[in-house]
């Protein structure tokens, strides 16, 4: 019966449901344990195996969710890094374009000044 204390309250709710026991969400862990162990046809070995499966499934599900969240976070970070790099590339291109434009202005002013000087 000590095995019932190794999981969570939610695990005991699932176990009680699988055993077709009437329960409600206000029940405490102790009340759920008593309900399960005091039920008609209680088989400790079967109940222990069911409980272990329920706990294992919950832990697997939690791990899967944690892994998915980490993967999602990594995808977001990678996307943000690509955006940051693209912004840097655009800024660099903008600086180059502005530099070229300024060179052309200076060259045009120089040519205009030379043409004015020749006249």
Quick overview of this protein structure:
This protein is mostly helical and 119 residues long.
Structural account:
The protein is an all-alpha fold. Helices cover 79% and strands 0% of the residues. It has three helices and no strands. It has helices at residues 9-18, 29-37, 44-118. It is rod-shaped and about 115 Å long. The model has no long low-confidence stretch (mean pLDDT 93).
Any chance you could write out the topology, listing elements then pairs?
Blueprint: H1 9-18, H2 29-37, H3 44-118
Query: Into which percentage range does the β-strand content fall?
Result: under 5%
In whole angstroms, how far apart are the ends? 109 Å
Structural class: mainly alpha
What quaternary form is this? Answer: single chain
Number of extended strands: 0
Topology as H/E string? HHH
Radius of gyration: 36 Å
The global form is rod-shaped
How many helical stretches?
Answer: 3
Q: What's the main sheet like?
A: none
Please give a handful of descriptors for the protein shown:
single chain; 119 residues; mainly alpha; 79% helix; 0% strand; rod-shaped
